[in-house]
Amino acid sequence: MGRVLAVIIWILTVLSVSLFFINKWWFPTPISAHAPALDRQFMLTIIVVGLAFTAAQVGLGYMVWKYREGSDHSRAIYTHGSSRLEVIWTVVTAVIFIGLAVMGQSVWASLRFNQAPPGSFQIEVVAQQFQWNFHYAGADGVFGRTDPSLIDDSSLNFIGLDEADPNARDDAVHSVIAVPAGRPVELLLRSKDVIHNFWVPQLRFKQDLVPGMVIRVHFTANTPGKYELACAELCGQLHFKMKSYMLVLPEDEHRSLMMLRQEQFQTRITELLNKYKLPTQSY
Ligand SMILES: [Cu+2]
After folding, report:
1. Taking the CB of residue 201, how many other CB atoms lie within 10 A of it?
2. What is the pLDDT of residues 110-144, one digit of tens each?
3. From CA 31, how far away is CA 66, in angstroms rounded?
4. Within a 13 Å sphere around the CA of 203, how many CA atoms are in the beta-carbon half?
5. Cα(148)–Cα(195) distance, integer angstroms
6. How far is ligand 1, taken at its centre, from the CA of residue 191, in Å?
7. How far is the CA of 94 from the centre of ligand 1 (A)?
């Protein structure tokens, strides 16, 4: 029985590791400027963790085989262990994992703690159960005033935009996020109710939206197209419906979209959603 268990452990190890080599179920093609660095870091982590996993499972199988019932070694002996060995593997593990964490945080932190580059295109994001609202500043490039007391979902004023403010007249609010290709984008993330999470897998970007906070993040999307946007935080009963699209548009197309007032803006977004197709990817 001990031999069978050892062999099962080894087979499971080989199967688990081979899933990563088949390369069938993997990330979608990245579209953002920071994605290659992030993917490299991810691969490095997977390789290190994969080697540790394989070594541990092969060792486990070996022990099960060697000390199985009925073998020459099956009689248990009492041991205090080896403090030296324990210190060595604890230090080695700590160095590897802290090292990986330190290396990985630089890309992550650069998108969150550094100021967005000058000339970034700003979008205010207001999440709510269970929809996304993206607030665009319009032709003047200035966001109209918003006030929580003006929020009225029944009249479709989801973000509390103050219609009396001259800066608000050319603003547009839509459930689709449209960003210019090749230009840095800064998001100002807010939530009206619970924690939501902005996630576009192709961007390699995921960020919580927390009630009471304005979280600033920035990224550059390089490949024009239509991509799925999901809320990646279980935010309530209809969480699964909290999805939308991100349009990455060539700069001219994006600029002319931003010149449009709310009604034409809506129509144009619908046209663009039909024009661009989701990336085809087999999983
Ligand atoms: Cu949500």
Report:
1. 18
2. 878 888 888 899 999 999 999 999 999 988 888 88
3. 50
4. 29
5. 17
6. 9
7. 35
